[in-house]
Amino acid sequence: MSSAFLQCLAVLFGLAAIGAPIALAMIGALLLASFFYRSLILACVLDAATILLFVINATTGAPLRDMIIEIWPFLIALLGALLTITLVPEFVLWLPMQLGYAP
User: Are 20 and 32 in contact (CB under 8 A)?
Assistant: First the structure.
């Protein structure tokens, strides 16, 4: 098992145990699960990307600065999706509401 996967599981269990009872009182379970899912994807991608940056740097000698510049658009897209889910919950809940989910 990769260390990134284990690290994400540790974060999920820690945050879910501490934050879920508080967050469920404030927002719905579906929105909370969507937020956890997206934030863990971001954490796992960033963890794997940073390891790969240093491996590629060591094997090819490519400057880290050039590789980081190429990664920014993807990170901005992931952060934009996380901010959209956080700030506009209707975006996440639209399809479940069309299928009969009532928050």
Answer: yes
Q: Please give the tally of structural domains in the chain.
A: 1
For the segment 38-94, what is each residue's pLDDT rounded down to a tens digit?
Answer: 877 787 777 778 888 889 889 998 898 988 888 889 889 888 988 888 888 888 888
Does residue 42 fall inside a structural domain? yes
Range of the domain at 71: 3-98
Task: Give φ, ψ of 28 to 5 degrees.
Answer: -80, 165
- For the record, the structure tokens of 81 come out as 């999706």
Spatial separation of the C-alpha atoms in residues 97 and 75, rounded to whole Å = 29
Is the CB of residue 29 less than 8 Å from the CB of residue 73? no
CA-closest candidate to residue 40, choices 12, 15, 66, 20: 12
Let me know if residue 103 belongs to a domain.
no
Structure tokens at 12: 């999920």
Looking up tokens 């994400």 gives 8
d(CA 25, CA 29): 9
Q: What is the pTM of this model?
A: 0.65
